[in-house]
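Data availability (excerpt). The following record was deposited with the supplementary files.
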Amino acid sequence: MAKLRKGKGKVGFVPTMGALHEGHLTLVRHARSVSDVVAVSIFVNPLQFAPTEDLDRYPRQEAADLALLQEAGCDIVYLPTPDVLYPKGFVSRIEMAGPALGLESDFRPQFFSGVATVVSKLFNQVRPDIAVFGEKDFQQLAVIRAMVRDFDMDIDIVGYPTVREKDGLALSSRNAYLSAEERVVAPKLKAALDRIRGVAKDGGDTNRAIAEAGDDLIDTGFDKIDYIALRDADTLGEITPDTKAARLLAAVWLGTTRLIDNIAV
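Predicted structure:
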């Protein structure tokens, strides 16, 4: 990688797990606009999956992904295998606190350790100047920013707004799991978040609005609510008098598919 980037200018990087969609490609195009060389990694990271989760089922479409990346203006695609990132004898993990606590960690306690570990490995191997992440995974973005700050990594972390379907559903590789009937119901998550935001902006009772939204989602076909929470957008801690901006985050189950989303408040 050092030879490829030498004398090429600023390197922009988009880490992915493949099964690319328009959301990923928007990140690539943004990286293209702010850097001279664009690198994308495709790696389904086993460290961030629990034994009960969908590692083996996670969609993979390498040939299609490569074609999409070429069209989007990607210069370098990095396709490491597990033995490259985690060779024999690999024993290290990064454990995150701060923005990694609560929300996703309450339901996927291994997740952010796996994310931080693999992203730090990818950063060390690719050596980007800029890395672009989608705001759909807002807590993940906050964790990566904290890791880069705490470990003095000279990388500009750029968050890009969530890309959505016309009906409001946030683009995600896991949307491929949805049945036709579930796909009709799925946009109601974004609509529920919008209603809560309206209550918050009007100075209403957001706790009540969140509880009612959860009940409404169950009534309309969702199977389980992991969380719907209003948090400080900078720390992801609870809202305090010092909070300058807030974020509404949610994770819900529709059939066997777990959908996550968030919006600014």
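Summary of structural features: The chain is about 35% helix and 20% strand.
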